[in-house]
Amino acid sequence: MKVLVIGGDGYCGWATALYLSNRGCQVGILDSLVRRYWDSQLGADTLTPIAPIQQRIQRWHDLTGKTIDLYIGDITDYSFLSKTLRAFAPEAIVHFGEQRSAPFSMIDREHAVLTQVNNVVGTLNILYGIREDFPDCHLVKLGTMGEYGTPNIDIEEGYITIEHNGRKDTLPYPKQPGSFYHLSKVHDSHNIHFACKIWGLRATDLNQGVVYGVLTEETGMDELLINRLDYDGVFGTALNRFCIQAAIGHPITVYGKGGQTRSFLDIRDTVRCVELAIANPAEVGQFRVFNQFTELFTVQDLAMKVKSAGISLGLDVEIDHLQNPRVELEEHYFHAKNTNLLDLGLQPHYLSDSLLDSLLNFAIKYKNRVDPQQILPRVTWK
Amino acid sequence: MKVLVIGGDGYCGWATALYLSNRGCQVGILDSLVRRYWDSQLGADTLTPIAPIQQRIQRWHDLTGKTIDLYIGDITDYSFLSKTLRAFAPEAIVHFGEQRSAPFSMIDREHAVLTQVNNVVGTLNILYGIREDFPDCHLVKLGTMGEYGTPNIDIEEGYITIEHNGRKDTLPYPKQPGSFYHLSKVHDSHNIHFACKIWGLRATDLNQGVVYGVLTEETGMDELLINRLDYDGVFGTALNRFCIQAAIGHPITVYGKGGQTRSFLDIRDTVRCVELAIANPAEVGQFRVFNQFTELFTVQDLAMKVKSAGISLGLDVEIDHLQNPRVELEEHYFHAKNTNLLDLGLQPHYLSDSLLDSLLNFAIKYKNRVDPQQILPRVTWK
Fold first, then answer.
1. Of A31, A116, A270, A281, which shows the fewest CB atoms inside 10 Å?
2. Chain A 88-127, CB below 8 Å of chain B: which residues?
3. Cβ contacts of residue B207 below 8 Å, gap of 6+?
4. Which of A11, A71, A181, A212 is an active site residue?
5. How many Å apart are CA A54 and CA A31, to the nearest integer?
6. Contact B211, B11 (CB under 8 A)
7. What is the pLDDT of residues A181-201, one digit of tens each?
């Protein structure tokens, strides 16, 4: 199976590319490397020292004998994208190639526009590229659980059956995204749904929760294969960020009361979910939505778990409740379904003390690389 | 009341600008004139000979003594938009300034991307401009009834209360738009809703039906004030297009069976609806949605009405059922609410024989300007 991983130099993308390669897929990576550029613009850096993509791929080849094709360029440039698709001829495309940070999109007008244009145009181009040359190719697109917001009813997987005034229909689940980034994913979902309907494309939207963890079997094989781990206020996500804060003796930064419930998954489940989606493709004309997470936690719960794991390792861990830089409910109902991927065979890695220990130890190993100036949130929604 | 009409050189925008000026508003027009440029690129032209915007405004001043400020530029250029807002200091912004043709957006990838980037970025810029300098300014945004698609349940005005698994919430109405243009309006709606929530802006989304008619009290005052009337396969909409076809002896072009039900309104109601929205602004932080139409017809019904009016004027009118260039249901349930504007005092102009007669006579008057090559649809959805 030939799989093109767009955004294959990123956190989820790199782990996915190696995993699929290891499982026997013929993998290509398409990446513009703009995320590394944004890091340098923001003065941020991954906790872990990641190698250049060319070295990463070379090392993977040296270790395993497996080849990953590399295409460096931007999918908003259609001529590059089209040429790449024709050269690689994918049977499935895994699309991680978007600006994926909510705070980044809320920095200012320019970053909001950049995020929406980059994400929407990139995805439109992929849809046209598939339609043009590979109409049977299965698009596996990374969405986000944040597309749903926090409705006061159960969250279904992409669609909801509504009875209203004595009639009934199954319609796209209403969306209430919470940042210009999350909005861009909602725009994508609508665009992809339409393309499936009119052109008969096949697509799976993976509405992913917050991913944590750093090691997969493949990225742990060698220091040159190490994955990125973000802890800064723009790209760092809960749990990973909390562990790094605990490791360096910085208080854990909970936004507001921390009663926000979010969905989470281990990066080892991310790569497996993508594999399951590829192995069980959507039908012709089908726009399929999977909610890709394994557990729900409040932010305060997570902070408490990290604190307790830290204490058992002898760390002195404090929890700080910062004024919430985001506009979001801090107390709300949240119950989301996630049976589609479980039904396909996903066996979750649940968050455990041992995982927290290993994440904390990982953070301790690289703690001399932390820039404390990067930790606190500097972007506000208001 | 100072009202900035963005897209004030267009079909709805021009009629609205003059109407509001006549009713005592201080009106500014912001327009890039790109629609005239697209017409020339497509080789299309309005049936009616419209004057340059500068002459239009001058003539309006000469006839009425009223001044309309003119700002020529593109709202996707934020520095221009911001400068204009500061110069004019609007209390309300009426935003017609988008690419508004579904077939135009479906021509090819470039037109799909152009439509979405133009519309989404323009609206994002307006939101940031309001937030920056005029946070109390009321945004009246033109949406479309096409955002809803054709669900098998009643269409409410923007929101729907859903009971699900024993819980209840009022959520954004699910959207199933039918072209990359209609999708751009859905993206806008989500973006505006979010901006109202986080920044406390006030906005009204007017989900407008298909507009017909050419004369308003103001545009009928003088030949130099005449409004545009599109009949071509890209920008011409049902009814207006049908009348022009009947006037020149071209068969009326119904797509497919013509069982598609759509919502319609007279352009004299468009201008009144905008006035009502402005006079009754949304609350701080409120994203309000009005379904702006007065009647529902199937496309086949409309064709029959035009045929019968034509025959009474001695015209020989045929109806052709073309292969549908769009992907849409030709038989479906459609029942949409429109009470919000009626409750504010809208008194509809219903489609009547006299209106059809006057539209047909108008079309006959200018029929020597018709280019028959422009009539048939040349853009397909597949």
1. A281
2. 109, 112-113, 116-117, 120-121, 124-125
3. B143, B144, B145, B147, B148, B157, B158, B289, B290, B291, B292
4. A181
5. 11
6. yes
7. 999 999 999 999 999 999 999
Is residue B96 within 8 A of residue B126, CB to CB? The reply is no
Chain centroid offset of residue A293 CA = 11
Give the Cα separation of A337 and A296 in Å (integer). 11
Number of C-beta neighbours around residue A52 at 10 A: 12
Asked if B162 and A160 come within 8 Å (Cβ–Cβ), the reply is yes
Neighbours of B259 (CB within 10 A): 15
For the stretch A202-232, pLDDT in tens is 999 999 999 999 999 999 999 999 999 999 9
Give the tens place of pLDDT for each residue, A254-298: 999 999 999 999 999 999 999 999 999 999 999 999 999 999 999
Distance of alpha carbon B287 from alpha carbon B74, whole angstroms: 25
Chain A residue numbers touching B78 (CB-CB < 8 A): 109
pTM beyond 0.80? yes
User: Do the chains contact at B171 and A176, CB–CB below 8 Å?
Assistant: yes
Residues 134-153 of chain B whose Cβ lies under 8 A from any Cβ of chain A = 151-153
Q: Which pLDDT score is estimated for A2?
A: 98
Cα separation of A7 and A345, whole Å?
A: 26
The question of whether A144 is a catalytic residue gets the answer: yes
Q: Please tell me the predicted confidence (pLDDT) of residue A111.
A: 98
Q: In sequence order, what DSSP letters do the residues of A97-109 get, joined into one string?
A: -S---HHHHTS-H
Q: What is the pLDDT of residue B40?
A: 96
**A286 Rama class: left (phi>0) / alpha (psi -120 to 50) / beta:** beta
The upper half-sphere exposure of residue A106, i.e. CA atoms within 13 Å in the direction of its Cβ, equals 24
Chain A environment of B167 (Cβ under 8 Å): 152-154, 333
E strand or H helix that includes residue B2:
strand B2-6
Residues 6+ apart with CB under 8 A from A7: A13, A30, A31, A95, A96, A97, A98
Q: Which phi and psi (to 5°) does residue A242 adopt? A: -60, -40
The SS3 call for residue B312 is: helix
CB atoms within 10 A of CB A339: 12
Helix (H) or strand (E) segment spanning residue A63: helix A53-64
Q: Which residues of A touch B77 (CB under 8 A)?
A: none
Per-residue pLDDT tens digits for A33-45 = 999 999 999 999 9
Q: What are phi and psi of B338, to 5 degrees?
A: -150, 40
Q: Is A181 a catalytic residue?
A: yes
Amino acid at B249: G
